[in-house]
Amino acid sequence: MTCVSCLLLLLLQLLLTAAAAAGAGAGGGGGGGGSAGPYEPNWSSLDSRPLPAWYDDAKVGVFLVWGVYSVPSYGSEWFWKYLQADKNPKYIDFMERNFRPNFTYQEFASHFTTELFDPASWAEMVSASGARYVVLTSKHHEGYTNWPSAYSPNWNSMDVGPKRDLVGDLAKAFRSKAPHVHFGLYHSMFEWFNPLYLQDRHNNYTTNLFVETKTVPELYELINQYQPEVVWSDGASVDPDWYWNSTVFLAWLFNSSPVKETVVVNDRWGEGAMCHHGSFYTCQDRYNPGSLQNHKWENAMTLDKASWGYRREATLTDYLTIHDLLTTLAQTISCGGNLLVNVGPTHDGRIPTIMEERLRQLGSWLDINGDSVYSSRPWTHQNDSLTPGVWYTSRGDRVYAMVLKWPKDDLVKLGSVVTTKHTSITMLGYGHGNLTFTPLEDTGTHVTFPAMSKVASQWVWVLDMFGVIPAGHTTH
């Protein structure tokens, strides 16, 4: 921003202070100690809230990262920071080669046109992926809001660019066309270049004008207007949680908000909160620990290996294959996590074709193998002790083995599974009865796969096992 722009924005935000305080109060929780209810505005109390069951059962979500950065669609959704703050030569060269001198990042907003955005088609596509929840970027670190926020004048999707309420349009589409998909919103607490935020940091957090007049009022506005059931916070991890008033907001969210019974939140609410406080933990981007965790967690990951936002320069090898995606799914849910699959829409409102293909491939696999995923729970063993690339889940008295590679000679040795006299083994997507299996003397089971041509499933194959016990247990 120019100095004049900074001063103007600072003046606008200060003028909004009274309105923000009034709006937050009207929202039912702006400074009321978290509102009356069972949860107090401290982590010990907030952490005692049970996880709403829908989230653990859902297992799969789709993440839509979309904003002004979708216009240059180059390098990363962090385009503005890399260009302006970091002076990255790659981004400077891109601007010099393609735009007139002194072209500013803010000017990209008028090109964020979204003219091909069809919310109903997005809802259909996410539903077809098999996802049970969706998370849309409401505001990224650039500060631009995808809804007509009263706290972001002239830097929102109604005032500049699309001239429409992107959050509201998509929320309506999902609730109308795909009501089984829970609607959620991502919201960045901080903004790279907001002068109020920079002033608060310069003052060593002895002031919190940005929190009181901008970012927290936005949260109340989002919850009251759109009632998201996932609040995916980001960008707060380098600043103290008390600066953000995080626990006060979360107490209101859990006690008094319109979504108090069903909402879930992640763990990015201030320094020290990540991987310690939240309905589910994200710990880091693309978090995939490979072992069972003692708290619900989520693997938020990208189909484009290098970026969350759309990149025009991405090549085919930059994208995960469907086998890569299903491998990540198997590893994640076997260890108790949910998988949040990121796609980056284009500036004109399209889901790139290769990303659509991955989502629909995922859905076709889940149509056949969903019993091993939805409402599943981790088994005693997460992955097999003898054969690499076999991951386990369970539902009730059934155990599922997700086999990532078709076995040589159609025989797979499961070192973690012991059969009993009650055992039966079938394959999801194979409708011709039980499979042949052989107990092994050294503990384990050989399972004979059917002819691949007779199996409907592709890419990853799931054994459905009844009456088995984990290796190391002796009860038959």
UniProtKB/TrEMBL annotation:
InterPro entries associated with the record: FUC_metazoa-typ, Fucosidase_C, GH, Glyco_hydro_29, Glyco_hydro_29_N, Glyco_hydro_b
One of the record's GO molecular function terms: alpha-L-fucosidase activity
SMART domains: Alpha_L_fucos
Coiled-coil boundaries: none
Family matches, as Gene3D superfamilies: Glycosidases, Golgi alpha-mannosidase II
Segments crossing the lipid bilayer: none
Enzyme Commission no: 3.2.1.51
Occurrences of domain Alpha-L-fucosidase C-terminal (ranges): 382-464
Origin species: Petrolisthes manimaculis
Name of this chain's protein: Putative alpha-L-fucosidase
Main function: Alpha-L-fucosidase is responsible for hydrolyzing the alpha-1,6-linked fucose joined to the reducing-end N-acetylglucosamine of the carbohydrate moieties of glycoproteins.
SUPFAM superfamilies per UniProt: (Trans)glycosidases (SSF51445)
Keywords for the protein's UniProt record, in alphabetical order: Glycoprotein, Glycosidase, Hydrolase, Signal
GO biological process, one term: fucose metabolic process
